[in-house]
Amino acid sequence: MADKIFRVNMTDLSTSIEDVPADWAGHGGRGLTSNIVAAEVPPTCHPLGPKNKLVFAPGLLSGTTASNSGRISAGAKSPLTGTIKESNSGGTSAQRLAKIGCKALIIEGQPQDDSWYSISLKPGEVTISKEEELIGKGNFAVVEAAEKRFNGKVGVLSIGQAGEMQMTGANISVKDPDSHVRSLGRGGLGAVMGSKKIKFIALDAEGGKVDIADVEAFKAANKVFTKALVDHPVSQALGTYGSNVLVNIINEAGGLPTKNFSSGQFEGHEQISGETMHDLIVERGGKPKHGCHAGCVIQCSQIYNDLKGKYKTSGMEYESIWAMGADCTVDNLDQIAEMDSIMDDIGIDSIETAVAFGVAMEAGVLDFGDSGEMIRIMTEEIAKGTALGRVIGNGAGSVGRTYGVTRVPVVKNQAIPAYDPRSIKGIGITYATSTQGADHTMGYTIATEILGVGGTADPLSKEGMVELSRGLQIATAAIDSTGMCLFIAFAALDDGACLPALIDMLNARFGISLTAEDVTNLGMSILKTEHAFNKAAGFTNLDDRLPEFFETEPVPPHNAVWDFTGEEIDTFWNF
Amino acid sequence: MKVQVKLFAFFREGRFIKDDKELPDGITAGQVVDDLNIKREEVGVLMLNSRHCKFETVLQEGDIYAIFPVIGGG
Ligand code: SF4
Question: Ligand 1: which atom is nearest the Cα of residue A296?
């Protein structure tokens, strides 16, 4: 069936299913959410008010058999950063939306009373219902209830208590194939969903399917693409150790931000490393290898069991483990897994929140390494919305402002993730210039600077870093539109067959004839659209800067500082 | 001379995590890899004292030398 735009207006509780405007036809995932937000959201609006819109879009290839194509994008004006935002995640929702025939779901307006709602989608149908039972509950209870009310296969997008309370660290949870959750993590999109009084969205794809223009060509291209992914050694390491394989190498390079970004190496790195995690998982009968959606052939996710061999959590990423671990100096994976599970349930971004804890530790609110107190604050303060809970739940910038801390690692008020920009300089350009606040996934220069994938670059030198980040940010914007997991990029950077096969799949799916140049142009146009939104929202080049302490506090072991001038950073936008 | 050699990911299997080795003067990073029966094409990253190095780099007394397979994440 032809893809449609599903629209829900929460002010008058009306719905519509519309034809896709010609301008949006070639877009999917991030390209589509950003274009819709840019076209329909006033850049100066309050992110939690009725004029903001929350948009969900599956990638262009989601719902097909293309390997690793099940990523969903969510977009809005971010209440955390004030910029445009696209957050993406695995789970089953992208595939369900695509099969329902929904190219994008746009949620606008705001209820005028205190009632809560849920939304459900089926092929050709979208319904708003009142919700009472699940208000105040965590994501795990929501997923369980939604499966009972609909069916076990239903896709679920939901918010926990943090989203209901509109905390700017709140995320949106996405049900995975095992009824656990993944997260649309960054930028506080859970607060936007909460501001629209939507507790969850159920996606029932029964009877739906995705049309492919040229089935044979699609199959052939997918075969080549899948082989490129499976054969690449990075994919194999990701399947064994997860993304957490990075702890030891980033530590060795002196770029693992430790104790609220006061050092680049963590004494307890081995205890929280991917190698240790792999051994613990195997010992306790968990699964080191697991996919966040059906069709992933890399499987960087995992099932982590507790000491007694009982399920504890899944899908622990390097960034989450780093943030709770090195940044808060917690060297115990079981404690980290416990916190990961609590944050999944409350529905709060594990990067933003753990970095916020690091700043709170610096302020003396709790001691570094005190994971017991972190757990208490999560369950008794954040989940219940006490004053302290809200200060931390609103992110690292909020904690810094509240307690007068100057070492606050944020760009555009979003927490800097797991790579210190003083000792790994290219990633600092990505943090500074990204259209969405500090976010490593926007242009993952680490591949080249540290991992030697797609060439090499000295991480301590400024040479060529602006160009490196620019090229990767353009490519990433395009990949984020396809529904592909970003981890295909390692194969794409090294294996010449990978990207052409991806383009062949796009062409076979839609009966079009894109070239590699078209794909690069798509990436550039997405970045420019997002940048224009931010400028209209009041951002200038002076916002593309890192916090001052990176320039003044040398970070061991290299004792490096951030030494890019503003003029150098600003050349990023010369394209 | 004394050099600390560190291995990561599956290079540890059947070998070691960390070993203080007595090595002959003038030995290169690549020779240590060969002596450990690690295939050079499986090597992703070599670091000497937290800086990237090459197979040809000559090791010095007191160096900390880390050998990684091809890995990635994010
Ligand atoms: S590689 Fe990891 S993040 Fe990517 S699709 Fe697979 S499980 Fe999900």
Answer: 6
